[in-house]
Structure formats: C-alpha cells, structure tokens
C-alpha cells in the first residue's frame, strides 16, 4: 500500500539541526516572554519579508483577535465569506458583526466593487484575505477605506513572502496578520504574527499579547496571552534557513500542474502571479461543468487512490450556523463565492512531494 498523500505536509528540517537550538534554550532557561529566539525571529522575519515591524504570536487566530483590539475596531466589519473560518471568528470574539461581501471571480478575493454597497454608519473596518497568497486589489480597497474613514486589516495568513511590483504585500492596510501553523508555507508548529507600520503600534500590540502589562505593576488593557514560546521561535529561525529551497520546489510543482492542466478540459487553474512574487502556498483547481465528474466525485476518486485533496473553501464561512442567519450571509448575496466554493479543490503541493506522486495526481484528474 502506498503512503497517503495529503494536500500539504509540514516542512521539517533534519531533527539533528534543531538540537543546538534546544541546547541554547536549556542553557538559558528562558522558555518564553520575549526571550532571545523571539527577538531574533522578529528581526529575521522583518529582514526576510521586507517589513518594518512585526509582533510574533502563539497562533494566527489570536493575532487576528488582537489586531482588531489594537485598532479598537467595533460595530461592523466588511469581510469575505471565502476564507478559513478564523477570519470571521476573530470578529465575533471581539463582539463585532461580520458583513459578508462577495468575491471577485479571477482571484477569489474580496471584490472592491461590492464593498461600498455594504457600508453602513456602523462600519469601522474592512478585513480582506489574500486568498491562496494572491494579493487583493489593495489600491482599490485602500481608496474606499480612505473615502469612508475605515481601517483595513488584512488576513495575510496565506501571504508569507508574497510580493507585488513594489515590495511585500504585507505592508498594505493598517495591519496584516500572518499564520505560521504547521500547514502553512512557513511554520513554527503553531504561530503567527502581526505586521505593523510603526513602533508605537507594535508596542501596543506587544502589551495586548501579554495580558495588557506595560510594566511589572501596570496593566492598561484586558490583553490576552498570545505570546510565542522560545521553542516555536527557535524552530522558526531554523525553518527560515530552508525557506528559499522550499519555495523553489513549490514553484516547480506549480509550473508542472499548470502545464498539464492546460491540456485538460474542464479544469481551470487560477491565474499565476504574473509579475508578482508568489509563495505557491496552495494549488486550487476549479472543476468546471464540462469536466466529466463533479468536484465531489473527483475528490472521492482521488481519495480512493490515497490522495487527499481539500475543498478550501467549502463550506463558505457564511454557511456555518453562527453566521448563516445574517442577511449578508445569504447565498443570493454571495453568488461568486458560492460558485467557487462548489467547484474548488486544492491539490497536493509541498516541498517533499515527489514527481511521480504529482504525476499520479495529474493522471487521475486526466482520466476524468
Ligand atoms: C490558517 C489561517 C488562519 C488561522 O491561523 P492559525 O495560525 O491556524 O490560528 C486564519 N486565516 C486564514 C485565511 C488561514 O488560512
């Protein structure tokens, strides 16, 4: 029996390479609370990503929750239904009402043309997602935000290392939030970060992730415990040494899928990154009506062959019980997202994916 193939496999450098990091932690006895590895990783990631300030977190979801608190967001926030459920959950955790707006058919990102119609006197911010690492239309979104005096917080969980023509996409918006979960391009087992534009905002975020402490005796906000531990930060430092090779291998896999699927009727790939720098985080296909099988039948067929694709993002966030009663959550309000959600299938893409295994995936899809 061949090994099952999953949509992703966490990237793990050789175990022996991690031992010296552990020895340092055991030597210093500093396990958390902004220790040396935490500081090193913050500064190494700023350099690698090309951003000014970044605050590490225990995971991306707590980073999202804290980002909203840092900017004191209240009322209603416009967001996308086509994302991982944590995007909207971070709003509910802050007592904010999510307002779902449909996506754009080419990138599957929040459609700027539909945002204005959803703005009410209670709207305070927009929370778009750079889905699959494809940059949102950041200029159009910022223009609307400026016109209506709204904040923009990007869920950039998929966008590690993604660049547009002028630099990192993480510099856009008031804040951008990363996830370093095991399934992501860059992982620290669990982890996340907020990218912020200035030192003052970072200071507030650092206080909020540490219970609201500003010094030993003073607490200024109902902060949470969102700190990244030294083990996770040390692993991030090790992982960063290998990120270039990991991205290069992802790119080869992406190129091969595109080449092969160009010749298969009924399989649509999303546009490649063009002149931008992609991270090849995911490889979604949209199974069209002229493909011989339905999306779900293809999903099952692959699964029978030991290949576990994922239907990201199906169901839509707006279909889950805590959201589906909201007027903006109705499928009639979200036709493009509903359509993509019914067609999408993410295929295996990760550095250790072997060429013959990728070929097997392609052959099964070609077989129809
Ligand atoms: C992974 C992910 C998150 C959550 O990040 P965690 O680190 O798992 O908490 C949030 N939003 C999106 C779009 C994600 O893919």
Task: Give an overview of the whole structure.
It is a single chain. The protein is globular. The strands form five sheets. A seven-stranded mixed β-sheet has the order 2-10-9-6-5-3-4, with helices on both faces. It has helices at residues 19-28, 36-49, 60-70, 86-92, 138-148, 199-208, 230-261, 295-304, 335-343, 355-367, and strands spanning 5-6, 53-57, 76-79, 97-100, 123-127, 151-155, 163-164, 167-168, 175-179, 192-196, 213-215, 218-219, 267-269, 283-287, 307-308, 344-347. The protein has ten helices and 16 strands. By secondary structure, the protein is of the alpha/beta class. It folds into two domains: 15-102 and 109-238, Aspartate Aminotransferase, domain 2 (3-Layer(aba) Sandwich), CATH 3.40.640; 243-367, Aspartate Aminotransferase, domain 1 (Alpha-Beta Complex). α3 packs across α6. The mean pLDDT is 97. It binds pyridoxal-5'-phosphate. Pyridoxal-5'-phosphate is lined by residues 59-61, 83-84, 86-87, 129, 155, 157-158, 179, 181, 192.
Short description, anyone?
The protein has helices at residues 19-28, 36-49, 60-70, 86-92, 138-148, 199-208, 230-261, 295-304, 335-343, 355-367; strands at residues 5-6, 53-57, 76-79, 97-100, 123-127, 151-155, 163-164, 167-168, 175-179, 192-196, 213-215, 218-219, 267-269, 283-287, 307-308, 344-347.
Form type: globular
Q: Approximately how much helix is present in the residues?
A: 25-40%
Average pLDDT figure: 97
Could you name the CATH class of the largest domain?
Answer: Alpha Beta
């Amino acid at each position: 029996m061949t090994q099952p193939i999953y949509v992703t496999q966490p990237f793990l450098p050789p175990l022996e390479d991690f031992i010296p990091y552990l020895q340092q932690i055991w030597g210093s006895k500093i396990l958390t609370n902004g220790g040396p590895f935490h500081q090193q990783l913050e500064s190494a990631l700023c350099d690698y990503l090309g951003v000014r300030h970044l605050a590490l977190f225990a995971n991306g979801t707590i980073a999202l929750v804290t980002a909203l608190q840092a900017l004191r967001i209240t009322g209603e926030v416009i967001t996308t239904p086509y994302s991982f459920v944590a995007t909207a959950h971070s709003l509910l955790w802050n007592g904010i009402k999510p307002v779902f707006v449909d996506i754009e058919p080419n990138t599957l990102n929040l459609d700027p043309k539909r945002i204005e119609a959803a703005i009410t006197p209670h709207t305070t911010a927009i929370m778009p997602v750079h889905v699959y690492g494809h940059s949102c239309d950041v200029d159009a979104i910022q223009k609307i935000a400026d016109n209506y005096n709204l904040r923009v917080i990007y869920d950039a969980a998929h966008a590690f290392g993604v660049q547009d023509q002028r630099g990192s996409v993480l510099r856009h918006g008031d804040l951008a939030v990363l996830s370093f979960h095991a399934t992501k391009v860059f992982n620290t087992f669990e982890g996340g970060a907020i990218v912020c534009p200035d030192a003052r905002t970072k200071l507030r975020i650092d206080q909020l992730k540490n219970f609201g402490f500003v010094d030993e005796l003073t607490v200024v906000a109902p902060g949470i415990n969102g700190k990244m531990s030294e083990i996770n930060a040390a692993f991030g430092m090790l992982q960063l040494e290998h990120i270039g090779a990991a991205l290069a291998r992802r790119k080869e896999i992406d190129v091969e899928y595109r080449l092969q699927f160009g010749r298969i009727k009924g399989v649509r790939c999303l546009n490649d990154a063009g002149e931008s720098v992609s991270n090849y985080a995911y490889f979604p296909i949209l199974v069209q009506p002229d493909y011989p099988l339905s999306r779900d039948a293809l999903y099952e067929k692959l699964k029978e062959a030991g290949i576990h694709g994922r239907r990201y993002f199906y169901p839509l966030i707006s279909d889950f019980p805590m959201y589906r009663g909201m007027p903006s959550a109705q499928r009639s309000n979200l036709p493009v997202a509903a359509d993509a959600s019914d067609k999408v299938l993410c295929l295996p893409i990760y550095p250790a994916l072997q060429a013959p295994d990728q070929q097997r995936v392609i052959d099964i899809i070609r077989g129809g």
